Amino acid sequence: MAAKCILKLYVTGQTANSERAIKNLKSVLETELKGLYTLKVIDVLKHPQLAEEDKILATPTLTKVLPHPVRKIIGDLSDKEKVLLGLDLTVEKEQLVDAKQGM
Amino acid sequence: MENKKLQMVHEQACVQTSEALAQLIGRQAIVDIVKPKIEKVKDLVLSFGLAETVTAIRLPVSGQVKGAALLLFSQETAFKLSDLLIKKEPGTTGQLTELDKSALKELGNIICGTYFATLSKHTGLKMIEHIAQFAFEKLPVLLEQTITNLAENQENILAIETEFDFSVPALKGRCFKTYFVVLFESTQFGAILASLEETERDFIEEDVAGRI
Hints:
heterodimer; A: 103 residues; Glutaredoxin; four-stranded mixed sheet; B: alpha+beta; Chemotaxis protein chec; globular
């Protein structure tokens, strides 16, 4: 198992909408997964090919790449419970902590 | 005013619309989800000057509720959208032909129609779509024409206001900016919000019963 949760957040441009989603997500991650995640923010206007490859339909979309299974969640990520449940992060947090301690 | 359930319906409608748009233009489309706000018509904060003429596609609905959706955009965006829809080179359209208007009506039909279909699914309220209309008017005139058919007093009209922007990765992420407004008479709006509450409660009860 990877010792880190790898996440990708797709946004459209540097709008208030995008900034809100980034801020909301970072707040959840710093509270729940501090030191256990890698987040890549992707602007679909600057990197359309990445959005095409990942078949993104809407922004903001948060994709959990690792640990498997891949999960996607759409919206402004203001609902902490929805983010944690949608990505299965409540269960995986313990596994990530165990894996990091075992390294 | 914000409403969580309306936000959920809005997110689902955006995803569905993205799929429908992709079919229409034959390319992947990405819709940017902007939080919807519930406003009185007089408080609408659209980024158009009152004297500015806007392009609009209007889709009225009747049935258990009576309302209308407006997809609004600037003339410049109308030209960009025509290029996209008719598959012309970007920058080609300088005046809207009947073919361009027809394509824009189809776009409005898809966006507004998908929104009403999603709202209808989640409320259980029957919404019958009418024929989409093309308009090129000053914003106050357009709103006046639309609300006259819904209520006698403008004070009694509530609007769901949001932006509806989408990009097309195949066109190097080119972004198309539009505004989306759904208008209902206030008591009918109340019925919609109450039905949203009701369907969510039904779903939770069903879910709990399923686990037992």
